[in-house]
């Protein structure tokens, strides 16, 4: 099978496609024929920053069909269509097949293609956990979502609206009308305005940018007792001084129960999935570089099998 490896740390030129043998499954694993794999910012960060020791197969998000099951697998059968976010330490989504434990997968949304389905797991779980597990967002509250046109941001916007929150989104000018069509109550052009010029008294800020400037502006617009949640840089203590807020950074965890809730919302057409572009597996380097530019609207997906 084909698989995408990091051969060395530090450069996109170290990303290569090689032929290797199919994985051999353990008793509690399933073998998945991957039909599509989601590309996330963490994948280019791993490529450039060396999160994993090479050689390492990249990728967390999969959509595909089960080709074989171990004798201890209880909930799935051969032929089932599934999605999932793989075990962080192993990853290996950028390939034609992967072995994974059933606790990392759930059934694919019936109304989505494989490419659309592969865009869901990591981004949607990150948005869900950030808003609800860490931000404790409630109906009627105001939430600020930075970079709302990105893969995580679009899920966060839709989950917040589903919950009944008032959403203030930040984006560049080209995405203002788009985000309003998705459900944002207000959209602030971050290239022209400071957050503090346009909003205040927020209950939650969900931040996937987290530069010092963005963090400070975020702290300023939160009401006393408000919650700041970052998925990138942690809250800077020197900036927090004087603010009566809680601030945290978190990393998502694969959670099939939450993913099943998200799939239900997608099947009920309460949440849409946005795929900006697909690349063949053999162009994984180009896909990573595209995501690295940071201007994607929604997600980028690899399609190993047509």
Tell me what you see in this structure.
This protein has 306 residues and is α/β, with parallel strands linked by helices. The protein folds into 2 domains: 2-120 and 273-303, Quinone Oxidoreductase, Chain A, domain 1; 123-249, NAD(P)-binding Rossmann-like Domain (Rossmann fold). The protein is 28% helix and 29% strand. It contains 10 helices and 16 strands. The protein has helices at 41-49, 114-118, 121-134, 151-163, 176-182, 195-198, 212-221, 237-240, 256-267, 284-292; strands at 2-6, 15-19, 29-39, 56-57, 61-69, 81-85, 97-101, 105-107, 142-145, 166-171, 186-189, 202-207, 222-230, 246-249, 275-280, 299-303. The strands form 3 sheets. Strands 3, 5, 6, 7, 8, 15 and 16 form a 7-stranded mixed sheet that branches. A 6-stranded parallel sheet has the order 11-10-9-12-13-14, with helices on both faces. Helix 10 links the parallel strand 15 (275-280) and strand 16. Helix 3 (121-134) crosses helix 4 (151-163). The longest helix has 14 residues, at 121-134. The protein is globular.
């Amino acid at each position: 099978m084909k698989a995408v490896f990091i051969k060395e740390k530090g450069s996109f030129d170290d990303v290569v496609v090689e032929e290797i043998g199919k994985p051999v499954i353990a008793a509690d694993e399933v073998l998945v024929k991957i039909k599509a794999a989601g590309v996330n910012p963490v994948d280019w960060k791993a490529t450039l920053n060396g999160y994993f020791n090479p050689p390492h197969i990249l990728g967390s998000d999969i959509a595909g069909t089960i080709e074989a099951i171990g004798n201890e697998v209880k909930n799935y059968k051969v032929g089932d269509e599934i999605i999932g976010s793989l075990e962080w330490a192993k990853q290996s989504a950028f390939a034609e097949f992967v072995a994974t434990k059933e606790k990392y997968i759930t059934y694919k949304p019936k109304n989505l293609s494989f490419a659309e389905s592969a865009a869901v797991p990591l981004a949607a779980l990150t948005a869900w956990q950030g808003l609800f597990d860490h931000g404790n967002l409630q109906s009627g509250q105001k939430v600020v979502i930075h970079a709302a046109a990105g893969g995580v941001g679009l899920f966060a916007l839709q989950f917040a609206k589903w919950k009944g929150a008032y959403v203030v989104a930040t984006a560049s000018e080209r995405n203002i009308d788009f985000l309003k069509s998705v459900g944002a109550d207000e959209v602030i052009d971050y290239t022209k305005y400071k957050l503090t010029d346009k909003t205040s008294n927020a209950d939650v800020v969900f931040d996937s940018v987290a530069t010092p400037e963005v963090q400070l502006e975020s702290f300023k617009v939160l009401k006393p007792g408000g919650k700041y949640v970052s998925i990138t840089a942690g809250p800077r203590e020197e900036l927090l001084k004087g603010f009566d807020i809680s601030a945290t950074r978190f990393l998502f965890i694969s959670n099939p129960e939450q993913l099943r809730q998200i799939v239900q919302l997608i099947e009920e057409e309460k949440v849409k999935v946005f795929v900006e572009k697909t690349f063949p597996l053999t162009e994984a380097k180009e896909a990573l570089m595209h995501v690295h530019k940071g201007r994607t609207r929604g997600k980028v997906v690899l399609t190993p099998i047509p």
